[in-house]
Specification:
By secondary structure, this protein is of the alpha/beta class. It has one domain: Vaccinia Virus protein VP39 (Rossmann fold, 3-Layer(aba) Sandwich). Helix content is 33%, strand content 15%. The chain contains six helices and four strands. Strands 3-2-1-4 form a four-stranded parallel beta sheet, sandwiched between helices. The longest helix has 12 residues, at 75-86. The protein is globular. The structure holds S-adenosylmethionine (SAM). S-adenosylmethionine binds next to helix 2 and strand 2. S-adenosylmethionine binds at residues 36, 38-40, 43-44, 60-63, 67, 69, 78, 99-100, 118-120, 125.
Amino acid sequence: MLFSNEYEQDIKPTDITSRLDFVRLIDQNNWKVGVEVGSFEGKFSEHLLENSSLDVLYSIAKWADRNGDSEVYPPMRSRMACRKRLRKYGKRSVMIQKESLSASWDFPNKHFDFIYIDAGHDSLSVLSDLGI
Ligand SMILES: C[S@@+](CC[C@H](N)C(=O)[O-])C[C@H]1O[C@@H](n2cnc3c(N)ncnc32)[C@H](O)[C@@H]1O
């Protein structure tokens, strides 16, 4: 398992100093259904699936030109990289290519045990993804 450091006992959300340790909260709380909003090349989705007992992780991104994808990496290539990285998880991994808000309408309330938001990083996008 890949953690920022080793813990012997249960951790509280406030103990987390690296997002890598988030997987410990997942298994500790027996969370089974999660979503990463903004998956880019799927590296963090892979970390979540590899190091937890999640039943299913939805990896959502628009993989389009706005908000930096094309500057960092051509969007099509980032989507393909994500697919390549996550396909080994079979049905545990579901990739959805949509705008975050639009994707949120596809799920009923309380569908997810957790929602990890890492899409647009400007304040308007973050507030919008939080539904504020
Ligand atoms: C910062 S990267 C995510 C990095 C990824 N979470 C990781 O840790 O490897 C942002 C991603 O969010 C996606 N994105 C940005 N705004 C979005 C939106 N409104 N809806 C869906 N995806 C969005 C981009 O396509 C990109 O894949």
